[in-house]
Amino acid sequence: MEPGMRLIDKVAIVTGGASGIGAETARVFGAHGAAIVVCDVNDAAGEAVVGGIEKNGGTAIYRPLDVTDEKQWDALVTDTEERFGKLDILTNIAGISGRDPKQNIQTSLTAGGLLEDQTLAQWNQIMEVNATGTFLGTRTAIPSMRRAGGGSIINISSICGIIGSFANAAYHASKGAVRIFSKSAAVQYAPDQIRVNSIHPGFVDTPMTAPGHANPEVAQKRMDATPLGRFGTPSDIAMGCLYLASDESSWVTGSELVIDGGMTAN
Questions:
Q1: Is the domain 11-261 a CATH 3.40.50.720 member?
Q2: For the chain, what are the domain ranges?
Q3: Average model confidence (pLDDT) for the chain?
Q4: Is 171 a catalytic residue?
Q5: What confidence category does residue 35 fall into, taking pLDDT thresholds of 50, 70 and 90?
Q6: What pLDDT does residue 168 have?
Q7: In percent, how much of the chain has pLDDT > 90?
């Protein structure tokens, strides 16, 4: 491994790669020598991320992906193996909060409504993207990683997968599912040298959290709960992904990497 280059000769799929944590993770992986397949439903933004990686000397392609679509996952992994010969890393980053996408400023303290106000359709959509999408990606990647002699699957959960709050029960449930699913998959596929870990971000400045942080009351409440006194950045989480993707974490599986500025310790 070259000094400073931690993913030489590795191939990675990054979902949610068009913005926020996904985009920064793709950039970091590319800077560390991996070939990246950037996936999202926002084609223009995804292509822009790929262009930036290539401009900096990295290798990347963009592929559209609806993480809830089983056939699209099958085609994506097949395409990745045909293009790059293998798959070493999967980062399941794509996710939704359940907030109305037209809402530019969050009007309540949390992104989702109270449990009694959530519809079945809202519940299903959040679970399908956040939990089922992670299941489909993990399941589809396993045979490819087995052929490669092992791999690393990194599932983005949340501090909301560890602790609760007074609202947005569907989001919490979905992220809790990702947490425990990751542990089960880790145990099942350890004999194949396929490592599965979850990352639990706190309050990070991303397009998903922007409406909440645009509300001074919401932003202050979240800041007050964060001992390090600042919101996280996508880079803070991407560096955690880099560690779990690299061989430096070769004895790490079934773990929870909490990156939250100290919130859950408070």
A1: yes
A2: 11-261
A3: 93
A4: yes
A5: very high
A6: 86
A7: 80
